[in-house]
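Q: I have 138 residues here and want to know how they pack in 3D. Can you give me a structure?
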Amino acid sequence: MNYGFVKVAAAVPQVKVADCFYNIQQIEGLMRQASQKEVQIIAFPELSVTSYTCMDLFSQETLLRNAEKALLDLVNNTADLDLLTIVGCPLVSGSRRFPTGRDIGGSAQKLPAQLQGVPRRALVHGLFTPTAIHDHDR
């Protein structure tokens, strides 16, 4: 019985610098463990797909493409899980790069009742900034 609470977890995978495919295997393992424990939302650290210490490698297209491919693999490999997951992955916009949290998994219908109707972008953004969720819905 959950008494109306949402079970949330934070997880820190063991990662290798710039080895996106290894890192998503570690993330997937932690997602599966969380799912077995009936976690409904799990968040991973900033840049957990690439690792945070890539430094100059963040300007390399190969790393950025591999991060996107690895993230898509993670989405496909975990489609069977009923779990909203926030994973840190770099985002490229023009010539700028941003460390972002990407939300994957957990359809809107499967979200806990307390979170039904809350925009997913607000859920993700709310986990990474102190700004209130409702401010992002305007």
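Q: Anything worth noting?
A: The chain has a mean pLDDT of 75. The chain is about 30% helix and 20% strand.
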